[in-house]
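[agent] plan:
  1. take the single chain provided in the ticket
  2. run structure prediction with default settings
  3. attach structure tokens to the ticket
  4. add a short note for the reviewer (M.T.)
[agent] executing step 1
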Amino acid sequence: MAINWPTHRRDIHRQTAVQEYLRQIVYGGNDGIVTTFAIVAGFAGAAADGVAQIGGLAVLVFGLANLFADGVSMGLGEFLSGRAARDMYHTRRNTELRALRDNPAQELRELQQILQERGLPQGIAAQTATALGDHPEAVADLMMTYEFGQPDPRDDTPAINGSFTFVAFLAFGVIPLVPYFVFPPTDRTFWISVGATLAALAALGLLRWSATGERLARTMGETVSVGTLCAAVAFGVGWLVGG
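[agent] step 2 finished; step 3 output follows
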């Protein structure tokens, strides 16, 4: 019986949805947090009278409009990039199959070298490459992975990837705006939003840590520091333009 690899990964390796779609969740979540806090920080950094007058309403209107517009854009961008990657994979794989048909000796030498670079002794690598020469489809898959760095995308679903990116963008991106729904637009509200943003970044770092099992200090530090840098840039631009 043939193994259904996606089901096998979930059942045998206990792979959760967070682990399977971690890249999309981290990508969408981080961008959502930074994008919406950029609106908050930009208005807070600006000191022009016109900006001060429209205050919290402007933060909410621009923040929510930006949140949904960018969320849709991010989700569709993930979908389109997945489709483009799949198309590129098939184009390069067909080229590799033609090369195996037209110049098999050269391609098998390349495969032997790849196997040797991954630890097989020269003799075993040569025997393996020769044995695989009668199975060009398998050779093409190996070459795509190890020569071009493109794994088989057949198990990827661009629509689901885009959906996870979109949902993560909205779920994390709305957090910096929540204080402006609850409190009047004062300096105190801005600093509450700063705290909410840091908490959202920390939560994203914890999610990444729980999925990967990497060192907590590294995953948290990277996630929070990258988001903080982007937020500081947004505040600085608002201060320079509106100050």
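[agent] step 4 note for reviewer: Residues 16-45+54-242 form one domain.
[agent] ticket updated
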